[in-house]
Every structure is written in structure tokens, then in C-alpha cells.
Specification:
This protein is of the alpha+beta class. It contains seven helices and 14 strands. The chain folds into two domains: 235 residues, Zn-dependent exopeptidases (Aminopeptidase); 61 residues, SH3 Domains (SH3 type barrels, Roll), CATH 2.30.30. It has a five-stranded mixed beta sheet, with helices on one face. It has a five-stranded antiparallel beta sheet with strand order 13-12-11-8-14, with no helix packed on it. Strands 2-3 form a two-stranded antiparallel sheet. β2 and β3 form a beta hairpin. α3 packs across α7 and α4 packs antiparallel against α7.
């Protein structure tokens, strides 16, 4: 996933709540990861087509839960039934998405991402790297009795699993940025946060790579596969999920691990997932529920959007009266919100400057972007 200097021009993919059965979608032979020294000599003007994306069979959706309508937003807080525990003895199911894989085959609702190819170094595309690592993680998890769905860019409608991990790699116009980072969706459930904590605890030690502290972007937390409110092809709201940026393909130090020691990368992800599955309580359906908040509107006095929940925090912008907002979090008398008038970043508004409304937040659509 290529780092951008500007976060998001619109709420195209940032609002969540603004990357087969019993195995992979087929088992095509993954192209070998080109060693760093060899890849560096490949001409960048003639990209090598990602073999994996051209040979992967047509995706067959795995069994899922009842789909959540992608565009219907309720007037008030959504009441999501507490999931029933899975039958005793049921093997855990994990979805591994190889970011950008077969992006050209995304459905019409995600057509804007069909040309999103991610990062590249020499002749190695991000899709190839993500797919190679995802296959390695799959093998490690299946060896421990986990059912794994290896998924391309297109996610089955309301994909239901015990964990979902979107595997990506970073890139930058400069060679300096490096390191890994993880993110949950906005409105993360307790289970999603536990999944993130478990993978974060294993990935750094396994790879030896530094963490890209402060590098998590709005696009990561608002990843399209997390956005069941807007998209049909997204995870179920109760599926614990994270997105992993494994490191920078444009960093020589990171490439030495990502390209030359992919087993360490896969092990770092797999160890974290297995730790999460071992520590979770399968009967705790409440842990899978993301928080929900009322639909909000700015009151008659208008409101100031701030960078933190404090009157002393930096002012981002002023929001006019009547503007509808999408709440992401609530803390100490403040709401963290998105506004379509200022979609490049979320901010905080004092609760006393807001009012609840029966009108749903106007999520972007092809006719109302």
C-alpha cells in the first residue's frame, strides 16, 4: 500500500462503521520472490506482470453469515444481535487476504480500486509479495488445525470468520521510510483489538523489523473490506479484523527481510493469529460486537473540530450547523467524528455542541460521491 502525503480526497473508503471452503481459492504456484540484489537490477520501466494475479482461478465465495445490507444505514444506533457461540469442537476459521490480488476483478461497487496495484520494487509487485506471504501463513495455520480461506481483493459478502487479516506492504517515493504497522477498523470490537495486540506482540520479534510508530493512516482503519455499511463485499460486522503493513518494499533494510526471509514474516503473522485464537473465549459473543453510536448533527451554534478531545487541542476546522456526522468514538464528553465537509481526517467535537438525529449519515455512493 503506497504511502500518500494527502490522506483521502473524499470519504471513498474511510468509513466503516472513511486490501472457498477449507483452504485457498485454488492452489496456483506462487512466483518466487526475487532476491533483493536481482530485483534491483530489473528495469522499472518494464514492470513484470504479477503471475499470481493472472493464474488465480475465479473466486468462489465461502459460506458466510446472512449478508448485512451495504447501503442501508439505520436512523439510530444499530442493534447487532450478540453472535451465538460456534458449536463445541468447531475448528477456527481465518481469512487471509492477499492485498491487491486480482484487483481488476473487483465488483462494480469497488470499481474505483480496480487500478490500485499497490507498491512495487523493480519487477516485484505488492500483490505478488502479499500472495507469497499469505500462502506461507496459510500453511503454518493449517498445520495447527485452522481452516484458512485465502482471499483475493474481492471479499465474499458479509464474510464471517474467527479472524480476518488483510496482508499488505508499503511503499514510498523516498527510500528512508521503513517498518511495519497494524490497524483495526474504526469502531473496533474488543476481539479485533485483542487480535491486533497478539500479532503486534509476535511480528516485531519474529522479523526484527522496527514498528512504523505513528504511521497508521485513515485509509488503513477505513479499509474497504472493513466497511460493511457501504459495501456488500466486506467482512461481517462481527468478524475480528486487522490490516497488516508488513514493511516497506522501497526500503533496502525491510526488503532484506520481506524478500529474502519471507518465512520470518509469515511466522510473525501466524504466531500472533495462533496466540489470539488460543487466548480468546469462543463463548464470548459480546467481544465480537463493535461499539455503536447515534446519528449526529451539528447544533445551531456550529462546532469546532479538534485534533484531540480537549478544548486546548489544535483546531482542525469549523463545522457549520446542521452538518451530519458519523461517530467513531466517544470519550469524556466528546465524540470522534467524520464530516463529509472535511473528509481528510477525523476529529473531536464536544458532545454539548451536537444533537442526535433520525437522519442517516450520507455515505458516498456512485451518484452521491
Amino acid at each position: 500500500m503506497r504511502r500518500m502525503s494527502a490522506l483521502v480526497p473524499l470519504l471513498a473508503a474511510i468509513l466503516v462503521g472513511c486490501a472457498d471452503s477449507g483452504g485457498a481459492v485454488g492452489s496456483p504456484t506462487s512466483p518466487p520472490i526475487i532476491p533483493v540484489a536481482e530485483a534491483a537490477t530489473l528495469p522499472t520501466s518494464t514492470p513484470v506482470p504479477p503471475t499470481a494475479t493472472s493464474v488465480l482461478p475465479t473466486f468462489t465465495p465461502v459460506p458466510t453469515s446472512t449478508p448485512v445490507p451495504p447501503t442501508a444505514t439505520p436512523a439510530g444506533p444499530t442493534v447487532v444481535p450478540t453472535p451465538s457461540p460456534r458449536p463445541a469442537g468447531t475448528a477456527p476459521r481465518v481469512g487471509l487476504q492477499a492485498g491487491h490480488l486480482n484487483a481488476s476483478e473487483l465488483p462494480d461497487e469497488l470499481a474505483r480500486f480496480r487500478t490500485s496495484t499497490g507498491a512495487r520494487y523493480g519487477g516485484v509487485s505488492e500483490a505478488d509479495l502479499n500472495y507469497d506471504i499469505a500462502q506461507r501463513v496459510q500453511a503454518l495455520l493449517e498445520a495447527e488445525g485452522v481452516i484458512v480461506d485465502l482471499l483475493p481483493a474481492t471479499i465474499p459478502p458479509s464474510y464471517d470468520a474467527d479472524a480476518f487479516i488483510a496482508i499488505h506492504a508499503d511503499g514510498s517515493a523516498a527510500s528512508g521510510p521503513r517498518g511495519w504497522k497494524l490497524a483495526t477498523p474504526w469502531r473496533a470490537s474488543r476481539a479485533a483489538q485483542q487480535l491486533l495486540d497478539a500479532v503486534a506482540a509476535s511480528y516485531g520479534p519474529a522479523t526484527g523489523l522496527p514498528q512504523d510508530v505513528g504511521g497508521v493512516t485513515v485509509n488503513m482503519r477505513g479499509y474497504y473490506a472493513f466497511n460493511d455499511r457501504r459495501h456488500t463485499h466486506a467482512i461481517a460486522r462481527t468478524t475480528p479484523a486487522i490490516i497488516v503493513e508488513m514493511g516497506f518494499m522501497t526500503s533496502a533494510a525491510d526488503r532484506a527481510v520481506l524478500f529474502d526471509q519471507p518465512g520470518r514474516v509469515a511466522s510473525g503473522i501466524a504466531q500472533g493469529v495462533l496466540a489470539y485464537l488460543a487466548q480468546r473465549d469462543p463463548s464470548d459473543g459480546a467481544a465480537l460486537l463493535p461499539p455503536d453510536f447515534p446519528n449526529l448533527r451539528v447544533g445551531e451554534a456550529g462546532a469546532i473540530l479538534r485534533s484531540a478531545p480537549s478544548d486546548d487541542a489544535r483546531q482542525i476546522t469549523r463545522i457549520a450547523a446542521g452538518q451530519r456526522l458519523f461517530a467513531l468514538d466517544r470519550r469524556d464528553g466528546w465524540y470522534q467524528v467524520f464530516s463529509r465537509d472535511f473528509p481528510s481526517a477525523p476529529g473531536w467535537i464536544r458532545e454539548d455542541l451536537l444533537e442526535t438525529t433520525s437522519e442517516a449519515f450520507p455515505f458516498p455512493t456512485t451518484t452521491n460521491p
